[in-house]
């Protein structure tokens, strides 16, 4: 692989972080004790402003879906930018219509229409607007441990306290069991019993609600929650209940879409026995880094609004041209199949390491979560933060999440090779060993660290414990 040219005037990271903190909010998360600036990339690798190369196992937060600097995408964007950058939805756009046609067909939703946005947050906001307008209700069901965005509305349906800074909301939100398989009150049940228990919980909840419920919004695999999910078929069981009440199902595919899970193109397809969702939201990977999101819905639902609207930036000529090229590359090169094969290889290598600090390796395809615990088996945010730092030192970029901040999130571009998977696994295992040794040292020298209230937070604080989505 060729080494892209380094910037002629590399910035000083220490100076840049000082300037960054002076002009951005204190709650804006930045990874690492010594934050890095990524200046360029190629394939599955990126370079920082000091010229250091990293194997990228986080893909710009599951956004670089195919590859960094994919030639087809950069060519399409450059050619479109040389013609016209912007027009808005007040004017026709061939690339927007063509992309909408392809996404509608791929969605699996009959009689589908597509509305483009600039982010997953905005897509989920629009989906909630459609559902509450269609059902004439502000009551929404959401999953515990969920995350759906950073806007006022989507924060109101987020079932993860780390990402919910206010209890104020325009919606009445009711939370359902089922997003986490291996923890919680139903963890010891079989898959069939787990689904039955969660469905009974849903039925009981609906029996206590006054008025119509608009929708259930759910991630097929919870992203920020730590790549957790219920068993296959859970949402099919839910949908049979929802359909009896006329309640819509919104599948939040911002992180699970476009074949990342390997087994399916969309996450909802693992729960397809009762049919497709009424509304599907997407973002991140389709743009490969371009600001792109959107909503797919049945025409009856999409057309329910009784007022005019537009999107100034959603579906812009540049983003749709780039997204079209990206989607064609993904389909032509069967990156979903590659995600299934390489994801299984990578998960297998991580499981085979059999480290005490690792409670579970989970996920699907190239959407892998590694849950970390301390010597007592309790969630360890310190171990996750330490692993994050050691991985960067070794030349590997990963993410983290989970309700307790103790889950490593592995989500490289879907073009990852077997050789790169093996290399990344080796680096990550070494980072985990180092974090495990530090955890052992802490427990040996300071017994109070076994008390969660006195846990050493220095490493976690360096990474700010807020985990980018």
Automatic annotation (TrEMBL):
It holds the Pfam family Aminotran_3. The keyword Transferase applies. The keyword Cell cycle does not apply. Residues 433-444, 458-469 have a biased composition (Basic and acidic residues). Its EC number is 2.6.1.44. Residues 445-457 have a biased composition (Low complexity). Residues 433-469 are annotated as: Disordered. Gene3D superfamilies: Aspartate Aminotransferase, domain 1, Type I PLP-dependent aspartate aminotransferase-like (Major domain). SUPFAM superfamilies: PLP-dependent transferases. One of its GO terms (molecular function) is transaminase activity. Transmembrane segments: none annotated. It is an enzyme of class 2 (transferase). Its cofactor is pyridoxal 5'-phosphate. Keywords: Aminotransferase, Pyridoxal phosphate, Transferase. Homotetramer. Belongs to the class-III pyridoxal-phosphate-dependent aminotransferase family. This is alanine--glyoxylate transaminase. It comes from Streptacidiphilus alkalitolerans.
